[in-house]
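User: Show me sequence and structure for the first protein, then do the same for the second.

Assistant: Starting with the first protein.
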Amino acid sequence: MKRRGLLGAFALPGLAHAEGRPARILVGFAPGGLTDILARVLAPVIGARLGQTVVVENRPGAAGIIAAEAVAKAPPDGQLLLMGHPTALAIAPALGQTLPFDATRAFAPVSLLAIQPHLLIVKGNAPWSDAPTLLADGRARPGEISYGSSGVASVQHVAGEALGAAGRARFTHVPYRGSAPTMVDIAGGQLGFAIDGVGVAAPMIEAGQLKAIGASHTRRVARFPEVPTLIEQGLTGFAIGSWFGLVAPAGLPAAQIAVLQVACVEALGSADGQRALRNASAEGIGSSPAAFAEWIAAETARYRALAAAAGVRPEG
């Protein structure tokens, strides 16, 4: 017997127009990063549970704000979802950035999916062997060394400014539309460094095009155990990484959120999900909606303090 889709299963009035059209998960960054990878792991699992096609749509720009706005303003019918990321859900609100939506009211959290550590990444033949040598160069040549991020007020932006503040060095921020193009330009010598996710950097590190000179985490990451943490290198408490979670437009009925949350847990436990987590040295979570809401609130407070200490401003 054919399973009914999301709309049929919940028989919501006024939503018949969506029948036959695929549901979408928006990703606010270019393909290649863990945000994109997790969305592509999740899409077929949600589709199987709902009995309808679910596709991933990359809509990069403004550090994920463009994609978040589309979901924030979408009808709460389950047809448009967001692979959430700290930038739109926590950092931009923490900085007081002017947004085209109210981040505290616009979304219905579904599940915190994963937490990924970041690495301090430089070109494979860069002269810096560790964080102290990079910071010393940054002090000697203020503003001459650039670092890349996935956009103004992104995790990578906050991390880069926090690194400079911690080492009393000044670097130049260059925003990109995602992590993958950032890695390409570091390898090509157009950028000095980035503090970014294990998953997107690992293949180029293993190929020798990039090298990791520090782990932005409380412990060394599983995929690169030889790389000391930034804490080990004297940067007390420096542990800034990424997290990923599914959100829907506010107002989506609790029964539909519950179905999506079950699909999140199932996707993380799948072979593809486990492979994605392992490749990124990421921790799979699969939280409840309530726990994810609490996480977002706590992260907003944490980033407010981090940004204030590093002098990060919403305009870049």
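Switching to the second protein now.
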Amino acid sequence: MKNFLILYFILLSSFGFSDPLSDAVQSTERDTNNVLRDVHRNPYETLSFFEIKPSMTVIELSPGGGWYTEILANYLNKSGNLIAAHFAKNSSNAYLKNSRNNFEKKMDSKKIYKKVKIVDLNSNLAAPETVDAVLTFRNLHNWLGSTMDKIFMNSYKSLKPGGIFGVVEHRAASGTSFEEMKKSGYVTEEHAIKIAKKHGFELVKKSEINSNAQDTKNYPKGVWTLPPSLRMKDVNKEKYLNIGESDRMTLLFRKVL
């Protein structure tokens, strides 16, 4: 697949055509350390699977340090809009507040981020039925419980009828308990689909774009044992680097018309 995409980009360039998504993924505006993670996170294939178009209004839920924001801000810059739903600006949690401040500094650092609107993750996100797509990457494990219900509910409300809800998440083995999901950082597909359907979404399709058969999902520090976190530091570091990033589900939902 990767070789096919490389050939595809070369052919487009040869005939003078431009692929806005390819341009965004390959942009020199991106942090070079983030680009190194493309081999694990497959941004071109993932955003294509989620049917994201450059004219859309998109919400990125909990963007963290802005890994996907770098691509989405560029891709949506000309005719679309990006809303980044980050941790609450007035959070009493020092880590969350610092993360939000660092993200804001990043958004102020380059012209490409000028149009990005930042809202609180615990807010209504956007006016009802004004958004084309809501995306979340590797966040569900942080929301397990009532927080997930609230975020999924507000995402549904913000979407236009037929709007897209795209989910990428560390995938637990089927049958994994709720407590083990919270502890390990892996979430079952069954749970993700159950909560999405509970709030009105329909599952359209799944993809194995971000799967990793080498991920055994049974590590001392849960999913954070693997890169990029590597919480075991130098203990078995080569082993975990060779495994790569986690096995992930990639799910496309739609707001029922």
